[in-house]
Amino acid sequence: MQKVIITAAICGAEVTKEHNENVPYSVEEIVKEAKAAYDAGASIIHLHVRNDDGTPTQDINRFKECIDAIKDVCPEAIVQPSTGGAVGMSNEERIQPVSLSPEMATLDCGTCNFGGDDIFVNTENTIKEFGKKMIDLDVKPEIEVFDKGMIDMALRLNKKGFINDNMHFNFVMGVNGGISGTYRDLMFMRESIPQNATFTVSGVGKCQFDMITLSVLMGGHIRVGFEDNVYIKKGVKAKSNGELVQKAVNIAKELGREVATPEEAREILGLKIKELSTQGA
Ligand code: KMH
Ligand code: ZN
User: Fold this and answer.
1) How crowded is the C-beta side of 68, counted as CA atoms within 13 Å?
2) What is the mean pLDDT of each run of 10 residues along the chain (281 residues)?
3) I need a surface site. Which of 66, 97, 118, 165 has the fewest CB within 10 A?
């Protein structure tokens, strides 16, 4: 089976130090968490950034500062900015880091309730606009899908030319408002994408390790990190993203999957190595 790519979602936009004191906010904290995850075996850092007080921001300068600082200590890492940002942000705010021309960025392919009363809004026009910008700047989208209908949306927009072929999906399982984190639902998602597409699996909350274990067995890739889950096991908070990645590495190895290096991850995903642009920053 193909080597497994591990993504670390180190920070997210919603999780706070109230949930786990090790959630990073400052540039220094973000770099420390990215390095711990990278050293443990993550080749992709899925990145949200915060102001020092912890409020989420999509500010391009803050992204550039964080990406540069991560690249200083983990030069090979694939840094994948979020274009989801936080619930309630405008499209203009969310799309900013794509102007830095990173190797990858997330592309959220539908609207859903998000964790209760919030609504994470991604209209068809938003997805088209974000998808087109990623094609123009040669940024590979990680197609984030929180439910099966979002896969259908991505396939439709692929046919219409807003998302390139060789699609890479992230099945985000277990969001309150999205598809549940169960074996049956993960199979359904897997069977709904093209044969030649790649996929990673994120399990939100207590389903994190069940979902990534299933993905390892299915030949998929995996994501862990504080964005999705702050516990290393029931009732015990993780000391760092590195600890979560190490557990994921152990699961993969126990099940016979080697972990991909960043170079191998680039090959699997068909990424081109790029210098970060200073355009717009
Ligand atoms: N913060 C969520 C509302 C992404 O990174 O693209 C959306 C999110 C998805 O985290
Ligand atoms: Zn995210």
Assistant:
1) 10
2) 97 98 98 98 98 98 98 98 98 98 98 96 98 98 98 98 98 98 98 98 98 98 98 98 98 98 98 69 55
3) 165
The amino acid sitting at 34 is: A
Strand order of the β-sheet with 168-173 is: 78-81, 44-47, 6-9, 221-224, 198-203, 168-173, 140-145, 104-108
48 in a structural domain: yes
The pocket of ion ligand 2, defined by CB under 5 A, consists of 82
Tell whether 104 is covered by a domain.
Answer: yes
Atom of ligand 1 nearest to the CA of 46: 5
Closest residue by Cα to atom 6, ligand 1, is 84
Burial class (CB in 10 A: 0-12, 13-18, 19+), 149: middle
Query: Ligand 1: which atom is nearest the Cα of residue 172?
Result: 9
CA angle 265, 46, 42 (to 5 degrees): 45
278 falls within a domain: no
Question: Probe ligand 1: pick from 82, 175, 176, max atoms within 8 Å of CB?
Answer: 82
| Domains in the chain, number | 1
Which domain covers residue 15, as residue numbers? 6-269
Write the CATH number for 183: 3.20.20.70
CA of 227 to the centre of ligand 2 (A): 7
- Atom 9, ligand 1: residue with shortest CA distance: 84
pTM: 0.97
Give the DSSP H/E element, type plus range, for residue 156: helix 148-159
Q: Is position 65 within any domain?
A: yes
How many CB atoms lie under 10 A from the CB of residue 255?
12
